[in-house]
Design goal:
By secondary structure, this protein is an alpha/beta fold. The chain contains twelve helices and 21 strands. Helix 2 packs parallel to helix 9 (254-264) and helix 5 packs across helix 6 (128-140). Bound molecules: ligand LLP.
Length: 419
């Protein structure tokens, strides 16, 4: 459930009519709903009610906006971060350092040191040399890094190849078969408290089966590690739960997920950690855009909107579907391809799709854009960096400014040795 709905034929975000935001802020612009973020945060937490010890770390890569993070911090959420930049954001948003988990396959030594200096709660180690480096840095600082070892359980998550992370051929984690030996060696290092296991098999998962298969493997690993004398107190189950993008999509609910986790992990006797991203933020945001032109095409008309692949990359990158809805639908439909102004054929949001009939000057939204939307934006074609707005009932605020192309250009220089 979300808080984007029509009232008297106009699409609202909570109590704000979207045409007002378009008029006052301009388009394209991302619009987030605080009530939706809070609802999703609550639903996910409620789904885990049967799990006695747990920590929820929002995967901030999907929406690192400070305003959004503050909303989730107030919900008791911590953060899953994958870079020094994300780490600083999580702290700046008001999240407690001890509620931060540092994932990521290519952390630098400087980032590991930063995590220690900031006092974060846990490092998720991706391979042995990283663990050795972390132990060295921590020992030098006379600190102990709390850490878990990320394993690659070699399961097919059944999602888009570009967002699958738990197959043996993917770059993430250490093979589950070699994990016991690596764990053994790392657990002996001073500076490191290796306290458990992490995994994350992919994103936008539409079936619980691969997750369950992976968790079962991790359960066996925990038993093996304990038999070898290790103290296993924490397991980080990652994120990945899918969301509906279009009618007919029926991903498992947070409640189904929570029930499966409770069943599979019943005897683990550990604190469980979760890293949800999309399921919290995806349907809490839309990308508001204006139709620039409607141009006849060979197969169907082109609806050319002022948002482009640089603002919302998912369709171009993963052929992802985002529902397109007119802000003031007339009730009529048309078949069209929805494209942006960028000079690439890949700048296509939809092909030959039946959509609300729109004309130049009309406003429309791409739905389910609150996760992996603004954060993946660029300034390609010297376009502005897209702004973000957070709505809260009958008020809203710009939580990220539009960064004009001129500001980006001002950060460049022409060498004086080119005459
Ligand atoms: N934990 C780790 C270690 C991750 O790598 C990810 C996502 C998550 C948690 C959160 O997964 P979620 O709950 O959001 O599925 N840009 C792509 C998605 C990339 C996901 C990367 N990792 C997209 O737009 O679909």
């Amino acid at each position: 459930m979300d808080h984007f709905a029509y009232r008297d034929g106009v699409l609202y975000a909570e109590d704000i009519p979207l045409p007002r935001i378009a008029e006052e802020i301009g388009t394209p612009v991302y619009v987030y709903s605080r009530a939706t973020l809070e609802r999703h945060a609550q639903v996910f937490r409620d789904a885990l009610a049967d799990i006695p010890r747990k920590h929820i770390a929002f995967a901030i890569k999907c929406n690192p906006n400070l305003g959004v993070l503050r909303v989730l911090a107030r919900q008791g959420y911590g953060a899953d971060v994958v870079s020094g930049g994300e780490l600083e954001r999580a702290i700046a948003s008001g999240m407690a350092p001890e509620d931060i988990v540092f994932s990521g396959v290519g952390k630098t030594r400087a980032e590991l040191a930063l995590g220690l200096d900031r006092g974060i709660g846990q490092f998720n180690i991706e391979h042995e040399p990283e663990g050795v480096a972390l132990a060295e840095i921590a020992a030098r600082k006379e600190m102990t890094a709390q850490a878990v070892l990320r394993v690659n359980p070699d399961v097919d998550a059944g999602t888009h190849a570009k967002i699958s992370t738990g197959k043996a051929e993917n770059k993430f984690g250490v093979g589950i078969d070699v994990a016991p030996q690596i764990f053994d060696r790392l657990a002996r290092l001073p500076g490191l408290k290796l306290r458990g296991i992490a995994l994350h098999i992919g994103s936008q998962l539409t079936s619980l089966d691969p997750l369950e298969a992976a968790f079962v493997r991790v359960g066996r690993l925990i038993a093996d590690l304990r038999a070898a004398g290790h103290d296993i107190t924490h397991v980080d189950l990652g994120g990945g739960l899918g969301v509906p993008y279009k009618e007919g999509d029926n991903p498992p609910s947070p409640a189904d997920y929570g029930a499966m986790v409770a069943r599979v992990t019943r005897d683990w006797d550990v604190a469980l950690m979760f890293e949800p991203g999309r399921v919290i933020a995806g349907n809490a945001g839309v990308l508001l855009t204006e139709v620039l032109w409607v141009k006849p095409g060979a197969q169907s008309d082109f609806v050319i909107v002022d948002a482009a692949m640089n603002d919302l990359a998912r369709p171009a990158l993963y052929d992802a579907w985002h529902d397109f809805q007119a802000v003031r639908p007339s009730g009529e439909t048309m078949t069209a391809s929805i494209v942006g102004p960028v000079c690439e054929t890949g700048d296509t949001f939809a092909r030959d799709r039946v959509i609300d009939k729109v004309a130049a000057g009309d406003l429309a939204v791409f739905r389910t854009a609150g996760a992996y939307g603004a954060t993946m934006a660029s300034t390609y074609n010297s376009r502005s960096l897209v702004p973000e707005v957070l709505v809260d009932g009958d008020r809203y605020i710009v939580v990220a400014d539009r960064i004009p192309a001129g500001t980006i250009m001002a950060a460049e220089r022409v060498p004086d040795w080119i005459d």
